[in-house]
Amino acid sequence: MELIWFALFAVLLAGYFAFEGFDLGVGLLLPVLGKGQQGRDHMVAAMAPFVLANEVWLVAVAGALFGVYPALEGEVLFGLYPLVVVMLLAWVVRDAGLWFRRRIDGPAWRRFWDLMVAAGSLGLSFGWGVALYAAATGFGSSLLHPLGLMLGVVTTLLFAYHGWTFLGWRAPGFAGASRSGRAVLVSGLVAALPAVGVTVGSMRYLLDSSAPPATLSVLSLMVLPFAPIVVVAQVWVWRTFRPGRDAVRILSFF
User: pTM (2 decimals)?
Assistant: First the structure.
């Protein structure tokens, strides 16, 4: 049972990096590729339908972490407290930017919230790299350790690349890029590499920190029956908003 939940946790964390990674990547690229307000609107419309579905992965990761590895809850919250606060604020700012950017018609208003989307995406992307390094070193290193900061930069660059690839698939020809679904799959796997590496490297530690078998059995009965529903929902989102679908309706909300 411990191995099953370890594998599930690894899949959830890798899935978050692979799916939410392109959302954050597009946000990172807003100031770079968004030439004018129309260009930024086009970028947001490309990834907007996927945002809420992708954030489900983060909720699942948090639930699995604190349900399957309760002994780590104190270590994570205590060892990463400043970083967790910053990342939560970045998450709120990014999502607020997506929701508020078109609530008032005005160039200054929309430029401000576009900047918030980019800033929130940067905070989350960089923060995840630092958090992974802290987790890999047992939460004993400084959050400002050079290797942790370097991993933050690497994670940010991987997400930006994933976002650029996604834009080439969802909006062919935008910013001179056209990419296939296979290219998005590959970039998603590349974006998930840091999460996979840290999870696999921490396998023994995670297995030793697992909840008792009785707790894992109860979690399995409560959670696993809903897994197919989540998978079906993800497939529906990707089929519904594949390239070529009209984005006007989406732009009216984002």
Answer: 0.89
